[in-house]
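Troubleshooting entry. The earlier prediction with zinc ion gave an output that would not parse, so I re-checked the input for stray whitespace and re-submitted. Clean input:
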Amino acid sequence: MGRLLFTGGTVVTAEGSYQADVLIKDEKIVAVGKDLSGDGAETVDVSGKLVMPGFIDAHTHMDMPFGGTVTADDWATGTAAVAAGGTTMIIDFALQEEGGTLAGAVETWTEKARDKALIDYGFHVAITDLRDDVKTELPSLAAKGIASVKIFMAYKGTPLYSEDDDLFEVLQLSKDAGVLVLVHAENGDVIAKLQEQALARGDIAPRFHALTRPPQVEAEATGRAIRLAEVAGAPILIVHVSCAPALEEIHRAHERGQTVYAETCPQYFAFSYSDLAREGFQGAKYVCSPPLRDESNRPALWNGLKVGDLQIFGSDHCSFNYEGQKELGKEDFTLIPNGLPGVEERAMALWTLGVRKGRLSENQFVAALSTNQARIYGMYPKKGALVPGADADIVLWDPELSVMATVENRHGNVDYTPYEGMAFDGGPASVYVRGRLVYRDGEIMGEHGSGRFVERSFTATRGLEARV
Ligand code: URP
Ligand code: ZN
Ligand code: ZN
């Protein structure tokens, strides 16, 4: 691979925006500055574009068994959608099988990804079976470059669900092992009870998915997980925060000086409870957990992103076809596989609804999509930065691009998009992973199998530093 010189663009990082050229040699950025001489480099005029570090999405579910089926996107179609969204690296959830080991989960996910990934990737391990040998095994993840695990407080009655004692012990073990614990915070017991009562009444439609998972069950579990982390003296990350009451728990922890990281997702800004109540069975297309909320939650979530109580914006891309998959729950909403596609729309949604509406700066946009993800998940400044020595993961962002989302122009493998008909103002024009062009103007250019596993190592920031 040779040298590439981007000239005439505006560099936008988490810290600021300025006019500069960017020089790439082989897979790395070698210089960022004014009037760089490329020494024979291929020059790319990027006037009018914003030059940003490649986006990172640390919350995806590719080729994952869930809800009695398997996600519609595998690592080929899923990472095509990733690249088309301006994202150059994902961290996907490798699921421990019942009776299986954590290393086994990593091996299985490595096989799924290896020949198909278009972009770079890492793994979190979702712990589902905390046996004694798994407790002994957990610390070995750090040496494999897997710096995070996930525990589910929800999904009672499935192998994913964990009791508090397991969550607590994982927090204790992870703290000593240099591993960050991610938590799906919803009270699984209360949800199971409310679901049972709803079905007994004959309430089977998709909207009962949200009505049996009210904001309080998310807030209660968020507060509980944070307090358990406090007792264990461990940092914690709450994924997919959907509502104001859960965010309040995080804010209070930050005020106490506790190290709590938190993520929110595009679906909680683009959609609401009313989408679950769409005519017929269409609401099934909007079933995810935590569920879509009332719009009254949004100002608090925007403020959370702005002040840093929510540091990262992940997609929680977990795609299922409507036909044959979402339809599994036609007679019983609890059987609708949970999850939405969104990896392609994540950045465009945040730009359109956040930056264009003046709710976030372009620098906060880069922080939430890239730099904070790299810092928190332990790969900064290799990823998430436009500095000499960093991987040449670059998005050329066109603030004037107009895209109307429709299932026909999506790059994943799903038979619908929840964003159908939604207009985005601004999007990626070209996307480079380690200096290789993977996407340009609607077309995938990269090679499947060219993505690489990225080793990560976690170091917690303390107290209020976790806010920003
Ligand atoms: O509905 C969702 N979020 N599906 C994906 C699994 C999870 O809980 O993250
Ligand atoms: Zn979850
Ligand atoms: Zn998820």
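This one parsed fine. Residues 61, 184, 240, 288-289, 316, 318, 338-339 surround N-(aminocarbonyl)-beta-alanine (ligand 1) (CB under 6 Å).
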